[in-house]
Design brief:
It is built from nine helices and no strands. Helices cover 61% and strands 0% of the residues. The protein starts with 28 loop residues before the first helix and ends in a 5-residue tail after the last helix. It is mainly α. The longest helix is centred in the middle third of the chain and has 25 residues. It has one domain.
Length: 201
């Protein structure tokens, strides 16, 4: 029986092994630098968020605030890191060595990062536009960004369901896709917590 890894092309000439495993993509210094830049941008968003008047942030410390809101006030600190890690991982996915384009768009981690990146771009544009409107003088762009991008977990749910229903769920074993999948799961949890914050307890 012909070995799977040594399969040839239909013409009989040796070709690219069918379904052969690609060597795992190793993390490089350039990869780490890109991730550090995304973390730096996330810190900048948090600094803008905490530049908001204390009257807005002080409400989180009141004793009568529900527990769900107190938990959310801590979860929200992780949102910019998760949201801005998505475009960074998306960029890393297209750095060599990279999978074929068709294979890449079947990877759940890649698809999750693409969905989150689209939501983050929309959130950034919305925050910029609202901050320039004279009728919204108290609009903090960081607060607007966080209030929009916390829904990116819902986008991940939609694209993952579409990927599963289309039979295109093909995860990769490399660290980029695994990181994208972990990012997607975390943002889904954030999305669920963002809904739970409106519960009266």
């Amino acid at each position: 029986m012909m070995d799977h890894a040594s399969a040839s092309t239909p013409g009989g000439a040796p070709g690219k092994p069918i379904g052969s495993a690609r060597p795992p993509r190793r993390i490089t210094l350039a990869d780490l630098m890109i991730l550090v830049v995304s973390a730096g941008l996330a810190v900048t968003v948090l600094r803008l968020y905490y530049a908001e008047p204390a009257t807005y942030r002080g409400a989180w410390r009141l004793a009568e605030v529900p527990l769900s809101l107190k938990i959310w006030s801590q979860v929200i600190l992780a949102i910019p890191f998760l949201a801005l890690a998505a475009p960074a991982l998306l960029l890393l996915r297209f750095r060599a060595p990279r999978p074929d384009r068709q294979d890449a768009f079947h990877q759940p981690g890649m698809v999750a990062c693409l969905a989150v990146t689209c939501v983050s771009i929309h959130a950034a544009l919305s925050a910029t536009m609202l901050s320039t409107l004279p009728m919204v003088p108290l609009a903090n762009p960081a607060t607007t960004f966080l209030a929009t991008v916390d829904r990116s977990g819902g986008a991940v749910i939609i694209v993952w369901l579409a990927l599963v229903l289309a039979g295109g769920w093909r995860p990769s074993r490399d660290w980029v896709d695994r990181s994208g999948r972990a990012l997607g799961v975390l943002l889904i949890l954030v999305y669920l917590l963002s809904i739970a914050r409106f519960l009266p307890f």
